[in-house]
Specification:
Growth Hormone, Chain: A
């Protein structure tokens, strides 16, 4: 996989992804602690609402942005969205009302809804060979999992010397560094695609493409299972650790790190697994694994079971299952859509 890093443009974009992901990881921990400070035992409800706002931004804005992303210079779009995300992160430490958190989360996620699908759709043009693109997808997933593992550990280390508000400053620095790296490279010019039917048809094209393609329909179903696992981790980690287990902020970060560790181990084992079993043989069992773990957690918590070790193990399994579902998805989309349709296809899935 390292051979793909010889491509200068991809290498810098990959580095931009790394630093932005590190900032995002710090923000995940900081946001959980901010919600706890503002709402106490109701922090889970606050985080759940924030997650719902995130989904509204993704579902409502990503397809709309994808419909017009082919008409905007990609570098300008990526850099401006990094700037919006950095500015939003700098404001978060100063909020004192829950509704303010919701407004800023919507702004942050709206910028991500524009940035990430554009970034994903750019990779096949930078790396036209499918093998190189698949390697880049694997590296991107490994970067994501490495962030899930290391960012909570970094956050835990920082929390021993500073308050969680300073973690938002780290988030802003990550986005600004990402913007600087994107500025340093030349990206392919967008290729406008003329589609009939107006704005609605353009905005829904990616979703219709997914629905019309059997393997992409199956991918949507698996995405729902992975999203449920991710939602549980984001929303309930802080409450389970602090309220039910009576542990501290450091343990919140470590629990999130367990999810990242499971994800990373799965991502490292994935290439050989795909060679041996194929996409279907890896992704479907992973979906069933996620369902089994979620069902076990529901039963265990319903009967009052509380275990720090059990929580870490469950979070690691959820991380592994999510990685096995999500990592091969980019290759499926590339094989299922024409090059000009990739921005819309990635935006619909995002």
């Amino acid at each position: 996989m390292r051979s793909v890093l010889r491509n200068r443009t991809y290498r810098r974009l990959f580095t931009a992804q790394l630093v932005a992901l590190t900032g995002t990881g710090l923000a995940t921990v900081a946001l959980s602690l901010l919600a706890y400070d503002l709402a106490g035992a109701d922090a889970s409800a606050v985080l759940g609402s924030a997650l719902a706002i995130k989904m509204v931004a993704y579902v409502g804005l990503a397809p709309l942005i994808g419909a017009f992303a082919d008409r905007v210079p990609r570098r300008a779009l990526l850099v401006s969205m990094d700037g919006v995300r950095a500015g939003t992160a700098l404001v978060l430490p100063f909020v004192n009302q829950v509704w303010q958190v919701y407004v800023l989360i919507f702004l942050l996620q709206a910028a991500s809804a524009a940035f990430t699908p554009t970034f994903q759709a750019t990779l096949p043009e930078i790396l036209p060979a499918e093998r190189d693109h698949l390697r880049a997808l694997s590296l991107s997933r490994l970067a994501y999992e490495l962030e899930s593992l290391l960012s909570p550990v970094l956050a835990a280390a920082l929390l021993t010397t500073v308050t969680y508000s300073w973690l938002f400053a780290g988030t802003a620095l990550g986005f600004l560094a990402s913007a600087a790296l994107v500025v340093s490279v030349a990206l392919p010019a967008p290729r406008p695609v003329e589609r009939g039917g107006g704005v609605h048809a353009r905005a829904t094209f990616g979703l219709r493409l997914h629905w019309a393609t059997p393997r992409l329909r199956a991918l949507l179903a698996l995405d729902l299972v992975a999203a449920a696992a991710g939602a549980l981790v984001v929303v309930d980690t802080v409450v389970l650790v602090r309220e039910h287990l009576s542990l501290g902020a450091d343990e919140v970060a470590l629990a999130l790190g367990a999810f990242g560790a499971g994800s990373m181990v799965a991502a490292l084992l994935l290439p050989r697994a795909l060679e041996r079993f194929g996409d279907r043989g890896v992704m479907l069992p992973a979906g069933f694994l996620l369902g089994a773990v979620l069902a076990s957690l529901t039963l265990g918590l319903g009967h009052g079971t509380r275990s720090w070790g059990g929580l870490l193990a469950a979070w690691a399994l959820l991380g592994a299952g999510s990685s096995l579902v999500l990592t091969p998805a980019g290759g499926l989309i590339r094989r299922s859509a024409a090059p000009a349709d990739l921005p819309a296809a990635f935006a619909a899935r995002f």
